Amino acid sequence: MTIQITKTFSLLLAGAALASLVAVQPVLAASPPDTLVEGFAFDDIISVDPGEAFELSTAEITGNCYSMLVRLNPDKTSEVVNELAESWSVSDDKLTYTFKLKPGLKFASGNPITAEDVAFSMERAVKLDKSPAFLLTQFGLTGDNVTEKAKAVDPTTFTLTVDKPYAPSFVLNVLTATVAAVVDKKLVMSKAKPVTPTDKYKYDTDFGNDFLKTGYAGSGPYKVVAWKANEAVVLEANPNYFGEKPKLKRVIYRYMKESASQRLALEKGDIDVARNLEPGDMESVSKKEGLKVTSAPKGTVYFISLNQKNADLAKPEVREAFKYLVDYDAIGETLIKGVGTIHQTFLPTGQLGAIEDKPYKLDVAKAKELLAKAGFKDGLSVTFDVRNIQPVTGIAESFQQTAAQAGVKVEIIPGDGKQTLTKFRARKHDLYIGQWGSDYFDPNSNAETFTSNTDNSDDSKNKTLAWRNAWDVPELTKETQSALLEPDSAKRAAIYEDLQKKVLADSPFVIIYQQVEVAGYSDKVKNFKLGPSFDTNFVYTVSKD
Amino acid sequence: MTVTASTAGRRRARSTKILFDVGRFLVVLITTYLGLLAVTFFIGRVIPIDPVLAILGDRAPASAIARVRAEMGLDLPIWQQFLIYIRQILSGDFGTSVLTTNPVLTDIARVFPATLELATFGTLIGTIVGIPLGVLAAVKRDTLIDQAVRLIGLIGYSIPIFWLALLCLLLFYGKLDWVAFPGRIDIAYEYTFTPITQLFLLDAILQREWDVAWDVFRHIVLPGCLLGYVSLAYISRMTRSFMLTELGQEYVVAARAKGLSERRIIWAHVLRNAAVPLVTVIALSYAGLLEGSVLTETVFSWPGVGLYITNSLQSADMNAVLGGTLVIGSAFIALNLLSDLLYRTLDPRTRAR
Question: Which of A489, B101, B189, B298 could covalently link to B193 via disulfide, CB atoms 3.0 to 4.6 Å apart?
Answer without folding.
Answer: B189
